Amino acid sequence: xxxxxxxxxxxxxxxxxxxxxxxxxxxxxxxxxxxxxxxxxxxxxxxxxxxxxxxxxxxxxxxxxxxxxxxxxxxxxxxxxxxxxxxxxxxxxxxxxxxxxxxxxxxxxxxxxx
Amino acid sequence: xxxxxxxxxxxxxxxxxxxxxxxxxxxxxxxxxxxxxxxxxxxxxxxxxxxxxxxxxxxxxxxxxxxxxxxxxxxxxxxxxxxxxxxxxxxxxxxxxxxxxxxxxxxxxx
Lengths: 114, 110
Hints:
Largest sheet of chain A: 7 strands, mixed
Strand content of chain A: over 45%
Helix content of chain A: under 10%
Number of helices of chain A: 0
Strand content of chain B: over 45%
Number of strands of chain A: 11
Order of helices and strands of chain A: EEEEEEEEEEE
Radius of gyration of chain A: 13 Å
Order of helices and strands of chain B: EEEEEEEEEEE
Shape of chain B: globular
Oligomer: heterodimer
Number of strands of chain B: 11
Distance between the termini of chain A: 34 Å
Helix content of chain B: under 10%
Structural class of chain A: mainly beta
Radius of gyration of chain B: 13 Å
Distance between the termini of chain B: 37 Å
Structural class of chain B: mainly beta
């Protein structure tokens, strides 16, 4: 049973389109995250939610909007996709916001914007 | 200068060798130090977790933190082909925001 699962695994789309990535965790964790890994493998935090409440919002364009319907789900919606958005997006969770260093990651969504 | 510097490699060693992976950092406020392992097309998984300075051992893996030098290391003894992966160091001040290194791509040759 996958602990942190995200869909889709691959996403190929045209510039200007709107797309969503979904994430679910079955670990009973309180905190969920979105990370972006660029082509040079740098992994950077984008957002963090604790019990459905946004607690970290890094310098990310407004075109990116996270949504947490409940503490087991965190989705990422991206409007007006640009070439520079091409990357691998990872969802992650941690037991709570205190033990934030022990992250459990999903397998990633490879986003390619053409 | 990046907050966390890590040589991306690639690093290729024969099976059975001792592997040394390192990161340096500039933020003296970092207190938590982690090593994550990432296999190709997978998410990172936590390998080692250390608070403050010192050593931590887990099987064939040893993590070392030297806060005075702002330097952390991961040693892998008796390396196996299954250890082939990208190893990312990560650190934080305890405020949830982990800062990751670029990752070192390691290949263990049978």
